[in-house]
Design brief:
Strand order of the largest sheet: 2-1-3
Strand content: 5-15%
Order of helices and strands: HHHHEEHEH
Distance between the termini: 69 Å
Radius of gyration: 23 Å
Structural class: alpha+beta
Number of strands: 3
Helix content: 55-70%
């Protein structure tokens, strides 16, 4: 068989794609759970969504004073056990810098705490999540 540049490039791309973390994860899932490549890729996609890993994190890093938290989805009914509730990841501004400084000067530490609670609860609600008591403490 005569190797052309196209064949060489395809071989090289195949070898490079086999050396990624994604392919390593899929291979380990396939071997450990004895499942098909289709299932391992579906698991990989779910893991990336849940743990928010991948190129999207490099594009949207958290800024200074911001946090990412997993909270109960706003669509969940009251009284449902927390373990059974759907959860969403939300990004909130914990420290707004100069704005928080001005609030503290005007209203003291208690006023700053109230302003922060109002801000983070509003931001979570806008993103489809609701904060619990434990999230605020």
């Amino acid at each position: 068989m005569i190797r052309t540049k196209v064949i060489e490039e395809n071989l090289r791309q195949g070898r490079l794609s086999a050396k990624t973390l994604d392919s390593m994860f899929c291979r380990r899932i396939e071997e450990g759970a004895n499942c098909s490549p289709f299932v391992s890729k579906a698991i990989l996609t779910t893991v990336k969504e849940v743990f928010a890993i991948g190129p999207q994190d490099a594009e949207h890093p958290l800024g200074l004073g911001r946090i990412r938290l997993l909270v109960v989805a706003a669509t969940e009914p009251a009284g449902k056990p927390l373990e059974q509730c759907q959860k969403v990841a939300v990004e909130m501004t914990l420290d707004a810098g100069e704005e928080d400084f001005q609030v503290r000067l005007a209203y003291g530490v208690e006023g700053l705490r109230r302003a922060r609670i109002l801000r983070v609860t509003a931001e979570a609600r806008e993103q489809g999540g609701l904060l619990s008591y434990e999230d605020l403490v």
